[in-house]
Amino acid sequence: MNSNTDKAPFWIGADGALLGPQMSRSSEVWLRIVDGRIHTIAKAPKEGEAATHYAGLLVPGFVDTQVNGGGGRMFNRQPSVETLKLMLDAHGRFGTTSMLPTLISDDIRVMQAALAAAISAREAGLDGIAGIHFEGPHLSLERKGCHSEARLRELGDIELALYAEAVSQLGVCVVTLAPERVGPEDVRRLVALGVRVSLGHSNANAETVMTALDAGASGFTHLYNGMSQLESRAPGMVGTALSDPRAFCGIILDGHHLHPVSATLAWRAKGSRRLMLVTDAMSPVGSEEPEFEFFGGKVVRRGTELRDLNGSLAGSVLEMTTAVRYAVKVLGIPLEQAVAMASSTPAAFAGLNDRGMLAEGMRADLLLLDDALYQSKRWQGGRLAAGAEVRSKSV
């Protein structure tokens, strides 16, 4: 029996695994896969059923809630099913089995095209498209970063209708907004629609941020970057995010967006159940693209860093396995917690209750990691995927 099929039960075994919501480490383990889900976890396979044992550590597939591009494509520039497939393929080589394609602040027609592409991708069977993330356009001018000022605007009925459709059709819609631009009543309206509100690209003071959290906002987009900073008498968005136990925080561990001390502080303040790894990846991931067009300007790649012509960081070329290795090898975070930050925690933030951990009943989105924490195998809904990780990173 070939484990590329999910039509008949089969077993996947490995030297070890990180099991359950606590990512408990187990020695040799076997997973019985039925119809693309984990049916049974056992110490030995059932006699008479197909079984394959692998050398390595089985972990849940990674969930990336902020992916702007990959495979040489930007979602903003070409919001299509083909682009989403290229993004999935590119990031899949580095551990991502579920993603929220992310649209940076843009015109309403582009937003509508992006949603239509995500819906069509799901209908075409690209189940790694777990929803959609609109990063803007309701952001602060003072903290806009590389977002186009011409695309920033207030929340209107047309955007509300779009977000409602996204929740209805995809199940998951994240909207990043600045709470000084979208008041608490509108945050409540969004949350009532089923939107997951994340705060970012904001110059708001702590009181405004806390009001948005009380109204139902549940996350912060790329913590520290694009937000009011922590000061002694003005904690800003950073201080509020670190201190509030309710909120999830995305963090970009590419060695450029954060100093290791800042990243370690975030982990110690939030813990692995509220701090989640994101890539904020742009089109060069999975390609050799040295630069790309971005809202009429250019973004240039220098090694593993992306900057626009104004010198601002413009997303990343980070992938999830590199982020996990950075967390473990540079920050000293235990592997079990680093994997949770890449899988169960982002799944919990997005409300993806059927993935993000190795447990009975969950989707069989699996990774096999080698001793150096590189991906050697990947299963998407129980199907063995092609393409192992390219070992080109320094971490």
What order do the helices and strands come in, and which of them pair?
Elements: E1 10-19, E2 24-26, E3 29-34, E4 37-42, E5 50-60, E6 62-67, E7 69-70, E8 73-74, H1 81-92, E9 96-104, H2 108-123, E10 132-135, H3 157-170, E11 173-177, H4 184-193, E12 196-199, H5 206-214, E13 219-220, H6 236-243, E14 248-251, H7 260-270, E15 275-277, E16 291-294, E17 297-302, E18 305-308, H8 320-329, H9 335-342, H10 344-350, E19 366-369, E20 375-380, E21 383-384
Parallel strand pairs: 1-5, 6-9, 9-10, 10-11, 11-12, 12-13, 13-14, 14-15
Antiparallel strand pairs: 1-2, 1-3, 3-4, 5-19, 7-8, 16-17, 17-18, 19-20, 20-21
Helix pairs in contact: 1-2, 2-3, 5-6, 8-9
Q: Can you offer a commentary on this structure?
A:
The protein is of the alpha/beta class and 395 residues long. The protein folds into two domains: 10-59 and 357-385, Urease, subunit C, domain 1, CATH 2.30.40; 62-350, Alpha-Beta Barrel (TIM Barrel), CATH 3.20.20.140. Helix content is 27%, strand content 26%. It is built from ten helices and 21 strands. The strands form four sheets. Strands 1, 2, 3, 4, 5, 19, 20 and 21 form an eight-stranded mixed sheet that branches. Strands 6-9-10-11-12-13-14-15 form an eight-stranded parallel sheet, sandwiched between helices. Helix 1 (81-92) packs across helix 2 (108-123) and helix 8 packs antiparallel against helix 9 (335-342). The longest helix has 16 residues, at 108-123. The radius of gyration is 20 Å and the shape is globular. Keywords: Carbohydrate metabolism, Hydrolase, Metal-binding. Zn(2+) binds at residues 135, 201, 222.
